[in-house]
Amino acid sequence: DAHKETMGFQTEVKQLLNLMINSLYSNKEIFLRELVSNAADAADKLRFEALSDDKLYEDDATLQINVDFDADARTVTVSDNGIGMTRQEVIENIGTIARSGTKAFFGKLTGDEAKDSQLIGQFGVGFYSAFIVADKVTLKTRRAGESADLGVIWESAGEGEFTIETIELPKRGTEITLHLREGEDEFLNGWRLRNIISKYSDHINLPIVMRKEPVPDEEGKVDDSVIEFETVNKATALWTLSKNDISDEQYNEFYKQVAHDFEDPLTWSHNKVEGNIEYTSLLYIPSRAPFDLWDRDRMHGIKLYVKRVFIMEDSEQLMPRYLRFIRGVIDTNDLPLNVSREILQSSKTIDTIRAASVKKVLSELTKMAENSPEQYSKFWQEFGQVIKEGPGEDFANKETLAKLIRFASTESGNAEQTVSLADYVSRMQEKQDKIYYITAESFAAAKNSPHLEVFRKKGIEVLLLTDRVDEWLVNSLTDFDGKHLQSVAKGDLDLGELEDEDEKKAHEAVEKDFEGLVERVKTTLGDKVKEVRITHRLTDSPACLVADHYDMSGNLERMLKAAGQ
Ligand code: ADP
Ligand code: MG
User: Which residue's C-alpha comes closest to atom 5 of ligand 1?
Assistant: First the structure.
């Protein structure tokens, strides 16, 4: 129904608004980037829905974004003829933060403005950034395909509540008017606005249109009887240009658009592939893990375009899960425009593009690991745990992945994961034929484990595996460079050639001496243990627990129990 309602923002929105206004003020011009990017998304969504229902265009198929200002009213307006919103959608999208990772985000806030503004940047600022410069925002919208009397007007001063009312709106799409705060008059200037647009939104894939600035005639008079419009951005998709024509800054700004990120990416890979299948990919590796890295329902990933038309944003079909942090676009000429998710799932074209894109990302990482180890270690800190899911998921690239993985080890003795399997192998002792590791629930537990005593004595390096994912990793990554990965806490500790004849004889003698004791311990413990053995792996501790070769490790068992299994 049409009645006017006043509603409260979700508590989180209020908090976010406060934070945003305070900590992003020094970068306030980004509000325009956010609103333009929403308008572009809305156009993309309309284009996509109209593929199956072109009545949605309502005889107005020229999608564009308008930016305008009114110096007297002190307003800046951004409007689009995209998909628009229903009343319910406005309430859901603009009054709440339904985004995943919200809780993690609020948990990390410190109250320190500099730190928090970084965090907000990572979280993504979006629509609410309008309130950095505006003390009132009016949004009018009507969804494509709905009748004119189902328009919606939403208004808020950004202080905890908003009003919403149904109105008549002949034009579909969304118009957002910012009533500028005192002192923000710099935005009531066509050149300033053009400048911001070309800085952040040049390569938005549709025209951003503004009123032409009036040119005074020879007498200095301005004729304002005719209003003319002009496109103020390049309106070409960045990825279609040749690499040589794109500056690093343009790559960085484009990344912020597609990834909803604030920071520059770590690096990118831009490829034009011609041949059997034609496509262009522009793939970015972010500098920082997003808040929802561990959320299975996360949505931002790779944007798929067909012939420069946005089709959908989907991470699963275009990147494996262990590369879910990769951002960017893939644009191909070899899929139909009306491609659906179902078609994607069984498309050979997509399989080929995906396999090649994964190779590109991995080779980019390999290059980074070789040429800029410092950058790579930054990458590893952020995304290492996710990469460790790789060998279990992506058999074809297991070897490449094995080279990319880093561990903590007894060699450095600190928790930082810097040791590659190749490093380890290069330090192996002459007669050593296995790569030894231990898994534990913490670095301290791993480092102080009694299982390491004999290795310490013999000066053999042991990898210290303490991430949750490590148990799964060692299940799929069982060999490297022809050497078996061996847990030091499992089965009979067979040091093979590392044990000399004298040691073996001494061990046998000890085992004989203590036969009686072993029998007594076995009887006492009964069903509680599978076996009792004399051990040679300890030098200081009297006893330790060992898992059988094919059993779960003690650490995995602990984790499963903690997870309620
Ligand atoms: P995000 O763009 O990351 O989703 P925003 O805060 O920028 O977050 O926007 C929130 C939501 O509001 C969008 O996802 C979209 O559903 C809706 N929205 C915002 N602006 C528009 C617009 N111009 N047209 C249609 N929907 C919009
Ligand atoms: Mg947005």
Answer: 126
